[in-house]
């Protein structure tokens, strides 16, 4: 039996802060290798905002980032987008992909989801924006499909 798929789209701004009391990324392993940062593992909890003025918190991107390229600054991401909007609270998108630090656009696969976004699939495109300080701003366009499902009754 075929299920109806529904499309979703979000246009958000990723704001990563590297230092200070509000930092959103923490390095947990930083081996000393020939290529700077190869093998580094970081954990992130980065807000996704509705605009550059940080008006509305849409979601948080949470999970590990691994410096997996010996020749360039190529990071592997395998993380969740945890939604904060009241109507989507607790719903997630699972993403995977490679972030080349110095290139644009970036592209990530949506490989699953929970809550509202059950059986999600899709793509995220990102482009780096100029930042007035040492933080990182990335504009993200998130587009995909999900299949609405009803949670089972355990009675």
Task: Walk me through what this model shows.
With 155 residues, this protein is mainly beta. It has one domain: Beta Barrel (AOC barrel-like). Helices cover 0% and strands 54% of the residues. It has an eight-stranded antiparallel beta barrel. The chain is globular, with a radius of gyration of 17 Å. The chain starts with 5 loop residues before the first strand and ends in a 9-residue tail after the last strand. This is Dirigent protein. One of its GO terms (cellular component) is apoplast. Belongs to the plant dirigent protein family.
Q: How many helices does DSSP assign?
A: 0
**DSSP, total strands:** 9
Helix content: under 10%
CATH class: Mainly Beta
CATH architecture descriptor? Beta Barrel
Lateral arrangement of strands in the main beta sheet: 1-3-4-5-6-7-8-9
Give the helices and strands as they follow along the chain. EEEEEEEEE
User: Major β-sheet, in short?
Assistant: 8 strands, antiparallel, barrel
Mean pLDDT: 87
Global Rg: 17 Å
Annotated CATH topology:
AOC barrel-like
* Structural domain count: 1
> What structural class is derived from the secondary structure elements?
mainly beta
Any low-confidence stretches, pLDDT <50, length ≥5?
Answer: none
Beta-strand share of residues? over 45%
Q: How far is it from the N-terminal to the C-terminal residue, by CA?
A: 25 Å
Instruction: Give the overall shape, derived from the CA principal axes.
Output: globular
CATH superfamily (homologous) name:
Allene oxide cyclase-like
């Amino acid at each position: 039996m075929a299920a109806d798929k529904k499309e979703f789209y979000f246009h958000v701004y990723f704001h990563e802060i590297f230092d200070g009391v509000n930092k959103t990324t923490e390095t947990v392993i930083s081996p000393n290798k020939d290529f700077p940062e190869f093998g580094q593992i970081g954990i992130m909890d980065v807000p996704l905002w509705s605009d550059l003025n940080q008006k509305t918190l849409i979601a948080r991107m949470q999970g590990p980032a691994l410096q997996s390229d010996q020749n360039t600054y190529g990071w592997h991401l395998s993380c969740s987008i945890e939604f904060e909007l009241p109507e989507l609270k607790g719903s997630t998108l699972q993403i995977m992909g490679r972030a080349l630090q110095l290139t644009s656009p970036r592209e990530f696969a949506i490989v699953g989801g929970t809550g509202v976004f059950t059986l999600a699939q899709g793509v995220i495109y990102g482009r780096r924006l100029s930042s007035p300080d040492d933080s990182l701003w990335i504009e993200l366009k998130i587009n995909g499909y999900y299949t609405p499902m009803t949670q089972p009754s355990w009675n």
